[in-house]
Amino acid sequence: MREYIRTAVRRLTGTSTATIDTIEPGTIRIAPRRPIDRFDVASITEVLDLATKIGAVLLDSGTGAIDTADQIRFVARVYGLSDLDVDVTYNTIVVSARRGPTLPPITAMQTVRYRSLDFTRLAQVDRLIRNIRDVAIAPSTAHRMIDKIVDAPHPYRYVVATAAWGLMAAAVSVLLGGGPLVALLAFVTTGATVTLNRWLNRLGTPLFFQQVAGGFIAVVPAALVFQIGGDLGVTIAPSQVIAAGIVVLLSGLSLVGSVQDAITGAPITGVARFFELLLMTGGIIAGVGMALRMLEAFGIYLPTITTSTQFAAVDVPIRVAAGAVAAMAFALASYAERRALPVAFLAGAIGVGVAAGATFIPVGDVISAGVAAVCVGLLGGLLARRALTPPLVVAVAGITPLLPGLAAYRGLYGILNEQTLEGFTWMASALAIGCALAAGVTLGEFVARSLRTPKLVPPNWGRWRRR
């Protein structure tokens, strides 16, 4: 354990530079191989196919459209293709190599059919791009490597991922003020939700209906325990369990990617991703609403929501620790590498700590969430680069404990209980908080890239020194 901690600290305090930093336009001189002959159709097609495969894994993992296009263009240029048109949309990548005014261009296309949370796959592709840049491996070797990455199974067993999702829900419930019983109930409920959704996914069930099932399961156990516990003299706040379940369901959606695309110059892709996000969130709301109506039909009524996310000074340490554990558990549930877990832990602590501090200043939930997300994107991004971890892993994990699960449940509760104005107000607040988190992470990540831009040696520096 001590050796693991020492290794993690060394990685966090190193001087490594992220792959995306070294391929930002204008920050590094690419020294490609000899340009491919424009009549060599086979070689051009091989390079384009490799670049689109790499881009598909990046897009599949939630990387923004602009970053994906930059890395595709970089890989192709290393192998000698510089005159390219790259178009990355919601689920399609099209790369076209121009061959002059007299020859038709050669085009390759790749379709991303689904998006999965496997951060190990993302990190392996990051290392492959490093090898292409530094070692100049052959395209055929790179093809074999990317195929192996895509076909490889998840690095952890399903039981580990399921337990991590449960741990995340338990930590979020503690972050919201819950006790041991609430945390245990959130753990069990989330484990059942993940298991059911995994089975539905094997059957080919659309993700929307998986979200409906998840929202339904998040409510029923909490309501039953609340009803039975009332008869036994045990009281719990079911809203804490339900909100934790909603946060787990929201965490797998591409909130950061959708807002990042809209901000960085890919509005069509951003709108498509954001619509998917809204649709999946609608599935959660539908499942929760169905469960509430069914319980009311059986005479089970949930109490008025009184849980608050305001931090008392004495509660700050335990809630910061809970947020850090939730971020680390999300990274583990998303199959992140072990080296990424301490970085995710620190990112979660940073985000919740800043949000906790902001509660003592009357700035509002939206602004406090945005400021916390900027810190996650900035500090977490720098730590990720030093630990050779893709910054997207830190960004998504760091803001996960801050997702507005309780605000979304409050809004739905108000709408279903004839508090329409208050309900829609909370739903709008949840949407604003989500956008503030994503925009803040994007801003912090941009600043982190600016701070870690590689310093280039002038081409005549050695000649000048010899003189």
UniProtKB/TrEMBL annotation:
InterPro entries recorded: ThrE-like_N (IPR010619), ThrE_2 (IPR024528), ThrE_Dicarb/AminoAcid_Exp (IPR050539)
Localization per Swiss-Prot or TrEMBL: Cell membrane
GO cellular component: a single term: plasma membrane
Any one GO MF annotation of this record: transmembrane transporter activity
Sorted UniProt keywords: Cell membrane, Membrane, Transmembrane, Transmembrane helix
Any one GO BP annotation for this protein: succinate transport
Top-level taxon of origin: Bacteria
Chief localisation class: membrane
UniProt cross-references to Pfam families, sorted A to Z: ThrE, ThrE_2
Residue intervals of the Threonine/serine exporter-like N-terminal domain: 49-294
Protein's membrane topology: Multi-pass membrane protein
TM helices/strands, residue ranges: 158-176, 182-200, 207-229, 241-259, 271-292, 312-333, 340-361, 367-384, 391-412, 424-448
Domain Threonine/Serine exporter ThrE, residue spans: 322-446
Family label: Belongs to the ThrE exporter (TC 2.A.79) family.
Protein name, as recorded: Threonine/serine exporter family protein
Species this chain originates from: Gordonia desulfuricans
